[in-house]
Structures are given as C-alpha cells and as structure tokens.
Amino acid sequence: MTVVTESDLASGFPHTFAVIQEGMGRQLHTGCQLYISRGGSAVVDCGTGQSFPGQPMTAQTINLWLSAGKPLTAAAILQQWERGRLSLDDRVARFLPDFAAGGKDRVTIRHLLTHTGGFRMAEGGWPDVEWDESIRRICAAVLDPDWIIGRTAGYHTSSSWFILGEILVRLTNQSYADTMQRDLFEPLGLVDTWASITPSQLTRYGDRVGRIFARERGELQLLDWHSELRCQRPSPGSNTRGPIRDLGRFYEMLFNQGSTAKGRLLSPQTVDAMTARHRVGAFDLTLAHVVDFGLGVIIDSNQYGSETVPYGFGRYCSPRTFGHGGAQSSQGWCDPEQGLVVAYYFNGRPGEPQHGRRVRQLNEAIYTDLKLT
Fold this sequence. Notes:
Elements: H1 6-12, H2 14-25, E1 31-38, E2 41-52, E3 55-56, E4 63-64, H3 70-82, H4 109-113, H5 131-140, H6 159-172, H7 176-188, H8 199-205, E5 213-216, E6 219-222, H9 228-232, E7 241-242, H10 244-255, E8 259-260, E9 263-264, H11 268-274, E10 283-284, E11 289-290, E12 292-293, E13 298-299, E14 322-326, E15 330-335, E16 340-346, E17 348-349, H12 352-369
Parallel strand pairs: 5-17
Antiparallel strand pairs: 1-2, 1-16, 2-3, 4-7, 5-6, 8-9, 10-11, 12-13, 13-14, 14-15, 15-16
C-alpha cells in the first residue's frame, strides 16, 4: 500500500488537506503532522507547513504531544497490573503513604485513571521544581471541596499523572523516563520519542525539535515550551515528545490487542479493560461536559452531543472509538470497528472553541476521504 506523503496529501486526502490549509490561512497553526493507518498499515505519514519560521514541518519533526501522551502512562501502569504488582483498586497510599493526607486516603489507582480522585487543583510546580518536590506537594494537597471519591468526575490535567508516574518509580526502582523507555518506547520501536530529552540529545536533534505557538490577539505567538528545562523534566501527563507517527504506532499496538512485531506488550484482556467504559454518563467538572472514560483514555461520547463534546473523535466514529487529545494541539485515537488509527499534531493553540471545531472538522474529513461515512 502506498503511503501518502506531503506532496500527495492534497490529491489523496483533499478534505483533510483543506482543513489543515484553512487553519493555516486563519493563523490557527503554521504546520501539522499527520499519521493515519488502516488495519495496521500506514496510509498517511507526513508533515505539512512550517514547524517554525524557516523550518518545514516533516514526518520526522519531534513535537510535544501534551495530554495526548497520557494513555502511554496508563499503559505502563496496566503492565504493572498484569505483572501482579498492583491492583486497580489498591489505594494509592499503599505505594505512597504520604498521599493519604488531606482526605485522599481512599483514592485508588482506578480513580486516578478515571479522573474521579478529587485533587484536580493540586499544584506540583512543574517544571520549576524537581520531581520529588512535585510529588511531595501533590501528596500534601487536600481533597477538592464536596468531592465524592469515585463518583464526582473532573479531568485532572497534571496532578494524578505525577502520582501514577511515582507509582511506576517505586515499583520499578527506575526513573519515570527510564521506565517508559524500557517498557514502552523501545519495545514499540519509538526511537525518537522521549519522556525526557537530555541537553545533549536536544543539541543533536537541533531544529528537528518542534515549536508550539499560542494565538493571542489574532496572531500566533511563540511559546518557550521547547526550552531545555521543559524538554528535560518529565511530566507524565503532558510532556512526551516525538514524531506523531510514534503515537499512532502506540494505538496500532492497542488495535492489535497488545501485540507488536517484536512481541506482546499487553494482553488482549488488558487492552479490553483499558478501552472499556469505566466512567459512564458523568458530568466532568473540568471539561464542562458529560464524557465517558476508560482507563486513561476517552471513549466516544457522541451520545452526549457530537457537536459539543470536547476532544471527541467526530460524528462518524464508531461507539468503541477511544483515544486522547492534547490541549488545543494534538490527538491520537483508534476506531477498532474500522481498523482506523489517527494521530495528528497542530503547532498552534488557538483557544478551546476554535480547536474544538478544528478537531471535529479534521476527524470528519479523514472519514470522508477514506469513504467511511
């Protein structure tokens, strides 16, 4: 099967290309990286536009996935579950006794993965403080007011993911970044994806490291999120970097029920558990919408409003579709009924409303171009 590259994107995926180009024209982004596969075989793998002025966006550009990388941390936790080192209903305090402070003693690992733990507002201080200090601050935080653990729902942008990362640290006796490298990135063959990029690696990659912009007063302004400090310090819910095709390969592994060319990373039963609906019909206080969750992944929630659900997968996806978005920028997902895996990255953060429209338009354009509507 021929893989569509940038030169053929306009003719092979005209609706998809039009959405990307329209966004460039409106200064929502200057570049996009896109990966699509069907049945485990790539059909699109390219970058288009500019990563930053004077530097093209290519399929090899190393971009910041933000929260689109959360499912990889969830998968690493589920590997430990398979190995019998934890139970999903273990209290977090079993591994981090200090975490029980502030009314959080009954929070379990399942609550972390379904965003029902109740410490959304805990501030760890990343990237300005070291890992251990972030963990200390989050452990000391109090439960959010009026929160019913396991029932109240609210997306945790950062806090719960640092705790999941620290559980991995204590179970593996390795740093979070090293555990992700050993247990996921290397087995998946993700040679340019990192939870932490060292200064020497950053120098070696040079302009391959992408930039990200925020739209302010109608114009894109460069952020400093490619700085050495931000690249080097891991944040389990927001700071994985790599070519977006690597995120697609992670979802291909899940589509293949945990199997890769090099061996099995998760059992089929674990993949089924990860992508099942564990949190159903709950109004999310952070996302301000009803959204269903699996274990670390968002499950298609079109039944609650396909035009309004945040970080959804478009109106053509099947009910079994699962994935995750990165704040105003990126998304990875799998529609198992269509054998479809999609991952993309926009280097402009235009605000939630415009990004929501951009995501819906792109996802629906991909289905249209593949004649799956």
